[in-house]
Amino acid sequence: MSWLLPFALALLLALAGPALARRLGFAVAADDPALALATGLVALHAVALAASLAGLPWHWLFPLLPLALAWLAAADRTPRPERTGRRRPGLADLAVLAAVGLFALLVARDWVTTPDFIYHWGLKAERFALADGIDWPFLADPAVAGLHPDYPVLWPTLAALTARLAGRFEAPLLLLWTPLLLLALLLSIRRTLAAEPLSPAIRGAALAWLACGLGAFAIGHRTAGAADWFPALALVLAVPALIAPRSAAGEARIAVAAALAAAAKIEGIVLAALLVLAFGLRPGARPRWRALLGAGLPAALLTLPWLVQVARFDLFTATNTGAPALARCAEIAPAVFRVARTPEWQGAPFALLLWPLLLLRPRLRALALVLAGQAGFYLWTYLTKPVDTELLVLASLPRLLLHLLPALLLGLLLATAPPGESRPAEEER
């Protein structure tokens, strides 16, 4: 029965996260499962991080969780949305379930685990589980400098908490979070497409195509346990807010997406900043500075304590950055072309060449800005990291493309939508 633990915990987080967010003044939609899960993940990480910073062992939190859930359920007076007019399940939804189900089966068999989980994410998670909290002195030990001790800790924290609840550290059990993230990403895409003036056939075909493509990459590239699913989900979650005028619901969506990205990976911090800035450029009735503050505050509250601890324990590694060298372009370009042809991505990276099409639709320009900024950051990283450039590109770019391609492909699909009134995802009923 312990195999059900990640699913049960995900359900609890999806129920409690939005209620907590609404108590804090964020207009998180009550009927968006992907956004609800992301909100719960951000809330759980915030509590776990605060407990570790305060020196409170995590096991003290577990008896408080049922009480907190009961309080949130009683205090949340948000009207539940009506369910009239929702899309009925179709063949595309079967494709989603098939892709996620097959991935989950292979994850449970421990056949598609990323080496990154074995060599650093999982090791940190196991140490955190044993320490009953984030073990900063362990990360500061020079002997573990190869474990990327300066990376944000949302994923190892989530895995460690799951292991504590399960009573044992069993990698396949913890890795089941990855299919859940894939499911959330596809559900978010489904919701965004449903709000567009597209024919049901096109929506269904697009969703099935994305489900099969992302499922194939998840399996073929062995991504179980990779932290890259968090920024990928964050950017897809942010799309509805980036293509609509600023609103309270959009601000809450960006706040959750930015916090999720920033807490998961270093490049997620850049993504969070881009999301907040791009959202601030959208038209809206609320003063721009207030929108920027509201959208960026959760990410800042998670990032600043982490930065303080990284500086305090001197966790930054020397290979993070160096002087830019344009001569590295001679190695970067052919390596990028090799990655674009990798079988696991089935040619999807060449869709980056279609990025200018997003600029032709005014409402997609904020999304285009975020994609360009994030891709530019990756290029800057390759130009400055004092390591073997070709090897770095070949080893990292297939995963980094996961951050961009789902949202890019979704944006290109939206660019094909005929002019017309699209319903904001927050208003989908």
Instruction: Give the proportion of residues in helices.
Output: 55-70%
Please summarize the sheet with the most strands: none
- The overall average pLDDT, rounded, is 91
Oligomeric composition of the shown chains:
single chain
- Backbone structural class: mainly alpha
Helix run count: 18
Write down the Rg: 21 Å
**First and last CA, distance:** 35 Å
Question: Beta-strand level of the residues, as a percent range?
Answer: under 5%
Order of helices and strands: HHHHHHHHHHHHHHHHHH
Unreliable spans are none
The number of distinct β-strands equals 0
Shape, please? globular
Report what the structure shows.
With 429 residues, the protein is mainly α. It has a domain at 2-58 and 91-322. The protein is built from 18 helices and no strands. It has helices at residues 5-23, 33-53, 64-75, 91-108, 115-131, 136-140, 154-166, 171-175, 177-194, 200-220, 229-242, 248-264, 266-281, 288-312, 329-340, 356-359, 365-384, 389-415. It starts with a helix and ends in a 14-residue tail after the last helix. The mean pLDDT is 91.
Describe this protein with a few key phrases.
mainly alpha, 18 helices, globular, single chain, 66% helix, 429 residues
Quick synopsis:
The protein is mostly helical.
Describe the secondary structure blueprint for this structure:
Layout: H1 5-23, H2 33-53, H3 64-75, H4 91-108, H5 115-131, H6 136-140, H7 154-166, H8 171-175, H9 177-194, H10 200-220, H11 229-242, H12 248-264, H13 266-281, H14 288-312, H15 329-340, H16 356-359, H17 365-384, H18 389-415
